[in-house]
Design goal:
The protein is mostly helical. 64% of the residues lie in helices and 1% in strands. A two-stranded antiparallel sheet has the order 1-2. β1 and β2 form a beta hairpin. It is elongated and about 95 Å long. The chain starts with a helix and ends with a helix.
């Protein structure tokens, strides 16, 4: 039993000089075992050799900065975990379908909003064509009471609502979610998804302006109620009546805007479902 041990020691002696450190002895042990195949088959020697160093390649130097870079890549990973959003006009639809996978009802709400905006545009066009001709320069002369106020308010509503809807759809295609009960976390979540804060600010300002404009529509409806009443000295003069088309159009826009904006802009209702 001593002769095999003596042969083993003589074979291993060149690999382990007396001056070698424990760390170098460990690496020399792996090299020697992989080269001699002591106690291993040929396949096992190839696996051991591959785990130690890859044939024909150089190992990258191990540095402290490289370790920090690897840790930052793993711990600071955001875009890969959240799903990379494609950029470019051709990818907006695909991103939108992926972001609204569990909120398909949004397409019906957005379609209803667009139809309401188109109805307001049609009503204004009909009012301008039939009741407000351009007789004195570029200022229309409306034969109905408060038609000018209705037309100005409707034009502002169409612009604000259209731009707000388009901007919100673009934000949703980037993974944007707006919840009324957690407004403070909107910017943190948007920044994690790569959405510029300026776009979120612009959307909030535009939506706020739209809400104030809708409140202004309530005042237009209220003050238009005085049209058609008897006035003047001796109660001999009457003012023209208000336009029924513009009145009902404004009333429908103000009333329908509340559920449409709640369903189409906030994610709170979807979470309750």
């Amino acid at each position: 039993a001593q002769e095999p041990l003596g042969s083993f020691a003589r074979a291993a002696a060149p690999f382990f000089p007396p001056s070698a450190t424990p760390a170098s002895n460990f690496s020399r042990t792996l090299t020697w075992l992989g080269a001699t195949g002591v106690g291993c088959s040929r396949d096992h020697r190839e696996v051991m050799q591959a785990t130690y160093t890859k044939s024909g390649s150089k190992r990258q130097p191990i540095t402290l900065s490289g370790d920090y870079g690897f840790a930052d890549e793993v711990l600071g990973e955001k875009s890969n975990l959240l799903g990379r959003q494609e950029d470019g006009p051709s990818q907006v639809w695909g991103n939108l379908m992926r972001s609204t996978e569990h909120q398909q009802y949004l397409f019906f709400v957005w379609t209803a909003e667009l139809l309401l905006v188109l109805y307001v545009v049609l009503a204004c066009s009909m009012e301008m064509w039939s009741s407000c001709p351009f007789e004195l320069g570029f200022t229309p002369t409306c034969k109905y009471c408060y038609s000018n106020a209705f037309l100005v308010w409707s034009a502002g509503l169409v612009l604000l609502w259209f731009f707000d809807l388009v901007l919100f759809i673009l934000l949703v295609s980037r993974g944007f979610r707006f919840e009324m009960r957690s407004v403070s976390s909107v910017f943190e979540e948007s920044d994690a998804k790569g959405i510029p804060p300026s776009a979120v600010y612009f959307f909030l300002y535009l939506t706020t302006a739209l809400l104030f404009w809708l409140i202004g529509g309530v005042f237009v409806l209220f003050f238009s109620s005085g049209c058609g009443n008897v006035s003047g000295p001796g109660l001999l003069m009457t003012s023209p009546p208000r336009s029924g088309l513009m009145f009902w159009t404004t009333l429908a826009a103000v009333v329908l805007s509340v559920p449409l904006l709640l369903l189409g802009r906030t994610a709170d209702w979807a979470m309750r479902r």
